[in-house]
Structure formats: structure tokens, C-alpha cells
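Appendix B: complex inputs.
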Amino acid sequence: MLWRFDRNLKNTAVVDENGASLTYAQLRDEGRMLCQHADGRCLVFCLCRNVMGSFVGYVSFLNGGVVPAMFPADLDRELFNTLYQTYRPKYIWAPVDFELEDSCCRYERFGYCLLQTPFGDATRLSPELALLLTTSGSTGSPKLVRQSYRNIRANTDSIVEYLHLLPDERPITTLPMQYTYGLSIINSHLDVGATILLTDKGVAQKEFWNFFRQQQATSFGGVPYTYEMLDRMRFTRMNLPSLRVMTQAGGKLSPELHQKYAEWCRDTGRELIVMYGQCEATARMAYLPWNHSLEKIGAMGVAIPGGSFELIDADGSIITEPDTVGELRYHGDNVTLGYAEAAADLAKGDERCGVLDTGDMATRDADGFYTIAGRKKRFLKMYGNRVNLDELERMLKTAFPAAECACAGQDDRLTVYCTDPAMLPQMRAWLAEKTGLNVAGFFPVTVPEIPKNEAGKTLYKELEKYDA
Amino acid sequence: MSNQEKYLNAFVTALEVSPSEAPSLVYGESKAWDSVGHMSLVAALEDAFDIMMEMDDIIDMSSFEKGKEILRKYAVEI
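Resulting structure:
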């Protein structure tokens, strides 16, 4: 059992945007009922939205020893089918309008349905395995991150400690719950008996702020794009007396916005906490203590309690000098078991043994604070979601075999290069559909050719000269 | 270009939808009009009518029809 709800039975665990709420006692009882219907440890696909049914399902399964694999409810159907055939879950926990052939509903609650599939207990699960998450939130590959009970416990303990979480916290959801950062907010606050304010609405919607004010939210988390939106809306002029803490993760916040929000927080008696993490480390690896947020603009902080970092140079040795770029390596009990790419992988044990090569390049200053300097591999963060450029390019070439194309770009701006301008609109529409990201994030660029070296490898640096 | 055309055009270019789809759109109910689309839309409307929208109006602009009502506050008649 991950959470001990019996310490906080009378506290309100969750309030949704319709005003419905559950105490910890009710949440525990709902969980028992749901897990009884699931009838023992097995694999369940959870199709997530920030609504009561989805929330109760996740919490109940995780606490009841059932392994949830978390996907967005609006996941592209073709991708769903691939995942479904790959992992063969015993159940799908989905909104009641979700249709699935050869399935029957075993239990229905809060607008969600426990659909039994024909697979039964076909998929074997390692006893350590607690939870499965996608690395990107929404892109194509069936690759999942395997998180253990120990991982989630360790990361929850660290987060509760460095954020000093108490039962009077009322975090409002701004991130999808299948997304590791959004989930870590839920996990850590449930652990202390706090009240989660659950909404599917976003910061650009009036209903979100009505709910925020009505329910006196005390904190929220945002990816860099959230802060850009808030800035665009001149958020700092809003009157939000209940707000105490804002956290940030899911990519590097621009130094300008970091400074602006750190100053605003200082001037209004609030805390801005910049953080760093990855799904492969359950959620969190580092945080910048709020009282350092102004003196360390651009930094992501220090390792969380229980974790540690090293910087590795090109020869594989540990860098000891300050202000030297190296690959960031993390040690801690929150380093996840490994990946899964097939059903058989779910029976595997720990493949990482507490060590994670993050793939991020970083520096450490003389005071011991870390700053992300770049990435080792070709991937981007799109509105907080990781997008693997090589993988996306492969998918694009499979879908458009006649096209000469390539993908590159920067965070929140993915460039699609193609030699045939007529194909670019279709490619953008296809990418938006497959990734679930807004089409505005994909910039089309027509090029005379895709530059390659003698070995046939694409020269991405040379493509940049065609950028508008 | 008439205000009506400018208004429609802002939706068509910002959300990348057809002129026939635009009038029935509601924020959050289509992939085109998500938070990212919303920010593009606000920027397009501000450019088209040379206005600066207040936060309360930005978050209140939840549909094609509602947007027309809001722009009236900025002395823009659609």
C-alpha cells in the first residue's frame, strides 16, 4: 500500500470542478470496491482526464496493487490499438463512452467504466512494478517507463520534504494526470492528507480561475509554456490571495520569465520553485530552493533529498571543476526500473540500479547549483512533452514514403523540413494528430534538398540555414 | 476588409481551420482550439484590431460568438 489514508480519514482528499468531493475515508472505500471488481493484481490501462473517475481509478489501482498504465483519454486510436495489442491489459478504465470490441463492463463509477478485455491475466508483472507511464505523454512509440513502489515512495518522500507539504495545501491541477509532473503533485499531496483541486480546464479558461478562487487554491505547477501563457495574460495583475507557491518543471524556463516570476513572488510574499525531473526518475531530481530563486536565475537547483548528481565528461570521467559542461548523471531510489517495449518486459526487475544518465548536459557552479546547458540526444520539449526527433522523423517517413523530410528545431517550435512544399500541410496535420499537440507548434520549411554526409546521415546543423 | 472578415480571418489563420468550421468552434472542444491555439487566436485578434485585451476578457473568450461580444468592449463592432 503506497498511501496510509487512515491518518487523515476526515480530511477532504479531492474536489472536482462540479463541486463533488471525497474524504480520505471515502476515497479508501471507493478504492476497495474498485479493486474488488478488478479481482487481484493485473494490468489496467487508465485513459486519463483530470476528472473524478480517472483520479479515483489511478489512486485505487496504485494503492490496491493493481498496475495502471496511464494514457491520455484522447489518445490517437491507432496508437491506443498498438499499445493494447502490445501489452494485453486485463482491463481498461475509461470514460463510459469509450468503445472497445470484445469487452464488457465489470463496474461503473463516476462516469468511468472498468472494461474487461479478452486477454485475462496473459501479461506477467514483476512484483516490484507499480505504474507504467509514457515518456512523452503522447507520441507514437509503445515505449513505457516502469516505475516501482519503492521509486514512487522515495520520490514522494523527497518532494514532501523539500516542499514542506502540510495537510492544509490545496494544489489545483494544471497538468494532465498521465503526465509525470502532474502525477507527482497528486502523489505527494495525497501523502500528507492535503486536498487536490481537480480540473480539466486550463489557465486560459475562465472556469479554471473561478474554480481556483472558489476553492482557495494554494499552489499550482506549470511547464514553461504555462508561464508564457500566464505572462501573455498579465497574470501578475490578478488578485489571488490564496496562492502561496508556484512550481515549474517540464523544461527550462527562460531566464527572463524566471526572473520576472521570482521577483513577483518575492514582492508578494510567495514562493517560486523551479525544479528539474524526468519520468525515468519517477518525477523529480532537483529543485531550486525558493530563497535562491533570484540569485540563481536560469539554474534548476540542487539534487532533491536522498538523491545526488555527477557530471561526466566525454571520456566517462567525473568532472570536479565548477562551471564545466558534462552529461548529468543522477543517483537515487527514485531512478525507475527501466523501459518496457513489449509485454514480456513487464516481468523484468530493476535494470538501472539507482543510476540514471539523464541525457541532459549541465554545469555546476561553485556553490553547487546545477544549470541545464543542452541535450545529448535529439529531442525537444513541446509544451512540456518530450518529443524524440529521430522517432518522429521515422514515423513521418513511414507515413509519407515519397517525401524527403527531416525534423529539428527548439523547444515549443518543431521544424519540419521537406523538399516538396505541397506535402508540408499534410505532414503538419498528420503530426498534430499523432502527437496530440497543436498544429501551431510545427513550422514548415521547404528546402532544395536534405543535406547528408557521405554515410547518408542527415546534417541537421546545415538545415538550420533554411529557417525563416 | 470588413471587421467581420478580419474577425473570421483571425480564427482561420490562428487556429488553422476552414472559414466554414470557424463559427461553430468552442474552446476546449476541438484540438485546434486548445490553450496553444487560444494564445495564437488572442494575438491574431489583438493584431487585427490593434487592441490589448484584458486577462478577464482573454479567459472569457470561449466561443466564436462570445468573442464578438467581448470585442464590443474594445469598440470593435463585428
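The CA atoms of residues 55 and 61 of chain B lie 10 Å apart.
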